[in-house]
User: Fold this.
Amino acid sequence: MRFYLRKKRQPPAVIIVALIDVLIVVMIFLMVTTSFKQPQFILKLTLPESTQAIKAGTSEAPPLVISIEGDGNYRVGPDARPVTLDQVKKELMAEVAKNPQLKLTLTIDNKGPWGRVVKVMDAAKDANIKNIVTSVRQAAQP
Assistant:
C-alpha cells in the first residue's frame, strides 16, 4: 500500500500593493469625472426695476487715479497733472487725511517700468491705503 504525502496547500496570497494601485486609479477616475459635472441648480432671476435705484459706486467718493506712463512719468488726479514720486507720496498723505477710506486706482502703460509701480504701491502702503485697484482696458474680441 502506498501512502501519498499530501502537500500542504498554501492559502491564496493577496497582493496588497496591486489592490492599492487599482484603488488609486479608481479614485483618480472618480475625481476627474465629478469635476466636469455641471451643477443643475442654477437660478435664473429677473430682478425688479426701480427709478429710484442708485447705481453702484455713485454714493462713494471717486478713487484717486495715479497714472504711470511708458517712460516712467507719474500723473495724478482727473486732470492728469505730472508729478514726481515725492509729490505722489505727499498727495497720497493729503488725500488719506481728507478721506481715510480712500480708494486708489493705478493706470499703468503696457511698457511702464515695473519698479515705478512698486514704488507707488509702497507709498500707498505708507499712507495706509488698503484698497488699490489697477485698471486695464478690455481686450478686443477676435
Summary: The helical segments are 16-35, 85-98, 114-126. The chain has three helices and five strands. The first strand starts at residue 64 and ends at 68. The chain has a mean pLDDT of 78.
